[in-house]
Amino acid sequence: MEKKKQLIGIWDVKHTFESSVVIFFIIGAVATIAFCYANMDEQDKRSTTPPPPLVVDNPANYDSLDGCDLFSGKWVHDNHTYPLYKELQCPYITGEFACGQHGRMDSNYQQWRWQPHACNLPRLDGKEVLEKLRGKRVIFVGDSVIRNQWVSMVCLLQSVIRPGKKKMQKVPNVSLLTFKALEYNVSVDFYWAPLLVESNADHPSMHKTNDRIVRIESIEKHAKNWVNTDVLVFNSYLWWRMPEFKILNGSFEDSKQYNIVDSHHAYSMVLEVWSNWLYTHINHTRTQSYFMSMTATHHRGKEWGMKGGRNCYNETDPIMKDKFWESGSDLEMMRILESSLNKLKTKGVTVQMVNITQLTQYRKDAHPSIHRMYNSPLSTTQLLNPSSYADCTHWCLPGVPDVWNEILLAYVLQGHK
Ligand SMILES: *[C@@H]1O[C@H](CO)[C@@H](O)[C@H](O)[C@H]1NC(C)=O
Ligand SMILES: *[C@@H]1O[C@H](CO)[C@@H](O)[C@H](O)[C@H]1NC(C)=O
Ligand SMILES: *[C@@H]1O[C@H](CO)[C@@H](O)[C@H](O)[C@H]1NC(C)=O
Ligand SMILES: *[C@@H]1O[C@H](CO)[C@@H](O)[C@H](O)[C@H]1NC(C)=O
Ligand SMILES: *[C@@H]1O[C@H](CO)[C@@H](O)[C@H](O)[C@H]1NC(C)=O
Ligand SMILES: *[C@@H]1O[C@H](CO)[C@@H](O)[C@H](O)[C@H]1NC(C)=O
Ligand SMILES: *[C@@H]1O[C@H](CO)[C@@H](O)[C@H](O)[C@H]1NC(C)=O
């Protein structure tokens, strides 16, 4: 019994990694970068017509949120307010996030508002956000799920920026993509560091291996690119969902010595290194720091009453059962994160956890499933069983990550407590 459970566990990790994270980051990153360059002119032409005026039917403002628990709530169908933008109006949506462009026909999944029990989230106004961020740099650091959120943020903001006044660039020799709103001098960046510290997953596209090797003490190589920032937004979760890690002592070039450590242990080690870096290198008067909590994957249809073998494939409605929890979400890792953030707090450093875990649990309908780009042709066996290659990890855009950003901005714009 125990053995069987473990096998399923390993299969899941493999499945998550091979079919979603790894394979897709490969084309994902490369495609995003290529697409960004290729489409700048195109995009400028498309956005010469100003977007229609926003319908303000939600009078809430950021000040009214004080004291409200934004993470406790429910999804409400709202096709007046959502989606906040159209997929084809945002040229940065590519690869695993471009569900409509890869054949997804339903759009209900784009039309849900997150309704906290105790207050309303203000409707996002791109101009207001850019005005408040004027002169500032925001950076998203982590894996492809936070890249998903970064693309969403860029889409939310780019529609209100005039043609020729925005720029998307890849920074040479660094895993950094930067979106600039020139008139506002705002920069919204993404930095690929799925394990935060140095590892053999650092290359944005060439990182496929079954052997995960981490230099747990070595964060500076990446972190030196995160200084001089006003808003730091981290995530790091999915890539730690492997049974074990090789922790390297010394550099990749001249060391073959490593210790094998289980993932929870490795996760707490890395968060300690990260905490120490944040404590010593960041000016916390200038910089606000956030950590996005883990997001749900929907690999086990049985958990919402489907027959065996089904997952997020062909799902078009959210789960309405209150407090639904899918068993792949590792609460122990969330506790490790919470304890690291609490420790930082006792040292006077506040890193707000943006607790999106529960709200993602309900959204089995919002993953790309089979409607995304694949970098190699699918086999006949796969095609006969679409669940086998469905991506139940990432999220279609527009969609759920837009709501993460609305919540994040509620903190950023008014220092919500
Ligand atoms: C919006 O949703 C309602 C049901 O919630 C539906 O009756 C209506 O036709 C929808 N409107 C549009 C424009 O899709
Ligand atoms: C733009 O913002 C950066 C910080 O992100 C700042 O260093 C720079 O001086 C600003 N430039 C202008 C022209 O305001
Ligand atoms: C980037 O890397 C290439 C090859 O490794 C090197 O030739 C080049 O000088 C580097 N450029 C910068 C700006 O560091
Ligand atoms: C790493 O190597 C150094 C010397 O090369 C040694 O002093 C240290 O104890 C090692 N650390 C671990 C965790 O093995
Ligand atoms: C930290 O940032 C604040 C606000 O930008 C600034 O006034 C202060 O001089 C900075 N402190 C250091 C040590 O750089
Ligand atoms: C997908 O869902 C629709 C309705 O929700 C159903 O009619 C159809 O049979 C499903 N397809 C598969 C392959 O399960
Ligand atoms: C985050 O959400 C999870 C699930 O709802 C909950 O168990 C946890 O206590 C929350 N943590 C914080 C710090 O809000």
Short recap of the structure:
With 417 residues, the protein is α/β, with parallel strands linked by helices.
CATH-derived topology: Rossmann fold
Q: Determine the strand fraction and express it as a percent band.
A: 15-25%
Mean pLDDT over the full residue set:
86
Strand order within the widest beta sheet: 4-5-6-3-9-12-13
How many extended strands?
13
CATH class: Alpha Beta
Number of domains: 1
Description:
By secondary structure, this protein is of the alpha/beta class. The chain has a single domain (2-414), classed as 3-Layer(aba) Sandwich (Rossmann fold). 31% of the residues lie in helices and 15% in strands. It contains ten helices and 13 strands. A seven-stranded mixed β-sheet has the order 4-5-6-3-9-12-13. Helix 4 (144-158) packs across helix 10 and helix 6 runs parallel beside helix 7. The chain starts with a helix and ends with a helix. Bound molecules: 2-acetamido-2-deoxy-beta-D-glucopyranose (7 copies). Residues 77, 79 line the site of one 2-acetamido-2-deoxy-beta-D-glucopyranose (NAG).
Give the SSE map.
Layout: H1 2-38, H2 40-46, E1 73-77, E2 112-116, H3 126-133, E3 137-142, H4 144-158, E4 166-171, E5 176-181, E6 186-192, E7 198-199, E8 213-215, H5 220-223, E9 231-234, E10 244-248, E11 258-262, H6 263-281, E12 288-292, H7 331-346, E13 351-354, H8 357-361, H9 380-384, H10 400-414
Parallel strand pairs: 3-6, 3-9, 8-10, 9-12, 12-13
Antiparallel strand pairs: 1-2, 4-5, 5-6, 7-8, 10-11
Helix pairs in contact: 4-10, 6-7
Bound molecules: 2-acetamido-2-deoxy-beta-D-glucopyranose (7 copies).
